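Note to self: keep these together.
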Amino acid sequence: MAHTNESVVSEFVFLGLSNSWELQIFLFSFFFLVYLASVLGNILIIVIILSDSNLNTPMYFLLCNLSFIDICQSNFATPKMLFDFFVEHKTISFEGCMAQIFFLHSFVGSEMILLVGMAYDRFVAICKPLRYSTIMTQKLCIIFVIISWSVGILHSVSHLAFTVDLPFCGPNEIDSFFCDLPLVIKLACMDTYEMDILTLTNSGLIALCCFLALSVSYTIILKTVRQKSSSGSSKALYTLTAHITVVILFFGPFIYFYIWPFSRLSVDKYLSVFYTVCTPLLNPIIYSLRNEDFKSAVRKLRNRHISSWKN
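Structure:
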């Protein structure tokens, strides 16, 4: 790369979450369980959706893709963080740091657009139920997925194109457990004010636009649901609660990081842990455990395996 001749820094050092050995053991145990639950939970969602023909609907197709993104997000930094709990000198190469930035923003950008697609699916299902099958076709669902990944990758590349050529000559310590873009930019040996503005504009605008689009969509949907009094509306309201909960918990920290003033607080890295480690667990917990159709599919799959085991 062209930056290697100008940059003295070949690796970055993570300060981690704590210097206490006892606390690090506790954090490792907790985050390992969260990581395991996130990966296995999202894999289970994909397996069940693909194995049950009753879940062959646009909503579950998009949910299946959301689970795949969450699996990817669970693995871009968490395994290294877990390993680093047992390492005194927590380092990452320059290339590894840039890779973390690329993957994080690719997955987050993709998930934002996919959540908008899921909101549109619920909007059509509740506000235009008679036209649902003609509007929410398989082709449209595939287009949503392609657009989500395309936007995510372009969003990430736009960040990386400016970051990779910044001159880094020290210091090289990052007060976090992964390469958080705003913290990495601040280590550059130059005035990074314009870069900060570019980062806020890029990430902040896409997050804010998606959040506003989701807010408007769910407001219209909730208003439509309130005007109905059928049992189907109650089921729709129950499903919407799960969707809205995920949106708030997903967008809240991201908007805080990229729209808040440039100064960062010491508590921010703990919020980063929630965002990168715990957020992928929201999908299996909120979408699946609260969804009767999904729980029914789980029971059917379990009974099928029990029957085959007995035979």
